[in-house]
Amino acid sequence: MAEKRYSDAIRIVLLCLAWYAVSSANNVVGKVLLSDFPYPMTVSMVQLFSISLYLIPLLKIRDVPKCNLSWRYYFTMIGPLAFGKFFSSVSAHISLWKVPVSYAHTVKATMPLFTVLLARIILGEKQTTKVYLSLVPIIGGVAIATITELSFNVTGLVSALVATLGFAVLNIFSKKCLRETGIHHLRLLVILARLATLMALPVWLLYDVTRIWDDSPMLHSTHAPRILALLIIDGACNFGQNVVAFTVIAMVTPLSYAVANATKRIAIISVSLMMLRNPVTIYNVLGMLTAITGVLLYNKTKYDQNQTLKKQAILPYVRTDTNLERHHVTFQTNSILHPSASSYDMEDYFKIVPQNDEFQGEHIHVPNGTPRIY
């Protein structure tokens, strides 16, 4: 048993290192590509097509089951998710094109802020005071980084915020989709990638392709083969970081994944500063570190809140009935899609199903730590 835990720990560390390396490479390659090839929609299309193409053999190897979803569900849930995935991806690439990688990822640290606001507006979910306070260093860090950013661009800032907001919305509704359908997360990913590619194809042909066709200097330059190679590498890196992220999240707890994801952002910022050498000030670095620290603090506070709510959910049964053998307690953990370029998230389910007649058919379901009685 000890040897298995030791081998699992080594495997997780190696996977995290691979995740950081592939993600950093994806962002550096993407920045270099967009500097020579300023067509973010085309870069997004290549990434979506790469996911659709490379996932085919992986789904067969893992024997991922197919799904039967109604046309109505496609129109009401899958379609909007696919469109949102494409729109958020394009926005993220616009920000990567307009501002340095380090600043773009600092702005993306505001994801918890959007998640809390959207959960309050859409789901009516309230947070503890500590959770709200943990958002302060995130906002403050991003503000400091923005004020001191030497290569600041309004379009880049707005695009990064829009992309972060889009990914937060996608995260919430992707979780809902996975809960309602029970579809495998890899199957959902390939469905969204294919549908997003088809939906965006007309717009891409009319907008980006015509502009690329008219860009004679770029098409006939000596950089054309290099740009094509970078497009292929970028698509492969994007696919790789998603697959590694899926594997990591299947092996670790939600808190561990959140910390690993924040650490990944630090790795991307550090590698981009070393490789691309964009100028930064000490205050700029301070703002980045403050924002990332805020993300780590938010993850820990949110986890503590969920654990407290789970304990509160079980207490009424324990107090009214000391015969715990009359109750059946189950824990389930599902992998939930995070539709950002690299993310999945985890969600715990905690159920208490009483076996006596008095409580027959009643159970407590706790998604995201919010108790609901059915």
From TrEMBL:
Domain of life assignment: Eukaryota
Location(s), subcellular: Membrane
SUPFAM superfamilies associated with the record: Multidrug resistance efflux transporter EmrE
Full protein name: Sugar phosphate transporter domain-containing protein
Domain Sugar phosphate transporter, chain residue ranges per copy: 11-299
GO CC annotations, alphabetized: membrane
Tagged with keyword Membrane: yes
Principal subcellular localization: membrane
Membrane-spanning residues: 41-61, 73-97, 103-123, 130-148, 154-174, 186-207, 227-260, 280-298
Cross-referenced Pfam families: TPT
Membrane topology according to the record: Multi-pass membrane protein
